[in-house]
Amino acid sequence: MPVIAPMPAAHSTPIPSQRESAEESAAEGTTVDHLTETYRAHYRSLLGLAALLLDDTASCEDVVQEAFIRVHSARRRVRDPEKTLAYLRQTVVNLSRSALRRRILGLKLLSKPMPDMASAEEGAYDQLERDALIKAMKGLQRRQREVLVLRYFADMTEAQVAATLGISLGSVKAYGSRGIAALRVAMEATA
């Protein structure tokens, strides 16, 4: 019967103990099987957590599925397999917060409704009134026209108009009042 000699200690590979293999698997992260089993076992509770944070079922399901995908892709960082559920829960909470922020931002960025547009008829009347006003303004004396344009179209105060034209404040008031009276007469004549 042949005798088998033991291998020298320098070349032998020790058989890993159960403790060492557990440490190695923890160093490698959570396994896909463990993550999948945790997800299946706690899917409803994760969905309930998302439902408390969000308002519609479709978004809740999307958030829980996205959480699984994200934890799956980062499973090597989950050193302790017992913490897999905690990672899934935290990811569901973070994704729910992000979904709510996107909704709020979307509501803020929605364009405000356009005011009711004038009909073509109203636009034509407005154009006629502008044309009549411009024609009436051209019929005013030069100083009256200058005072009214600066005061009402350039939105200047009476003092600013006086300084701009180099006339007294009283003259600005007089030219303005006479100009408005002349415009009123001219506009009533076209109506």
Description of the molecule:
- With 191 residues, this protein is an all-alpha fold.
- It folds into two domains: 19-107, Rna Polymerase Sigma Factor, Chain: A (Orthogonal Bundle); 137-190, Winged helix-like DNA-binding domain superfamily/Winged helix DNA-binding domain (Arc Repressor Mutant, subunit A, Orthogonal Bundle), CATH 1.10.10.10.
- It is 72% helix and 0% strand.
- The protein has eight helices and no strands.
- The chain has helices at 18-28, 32-53, 57-73, 84-109, 120-138, 142-153, 158-165, 169-190.
- The longest helix is centred in the middle third of the chain and has 26 residues, at 84-109.
- The model is unreliable at 1-27 (pLDDT under 50).
- Residues 131-183 form the RNA polymerase sigma factor 70 region 4 type domain.
- GO terms for molecular function: DNA binding; sigma factor activity.
- Belongs to the sigma-70 factor family. ECF subfamily.
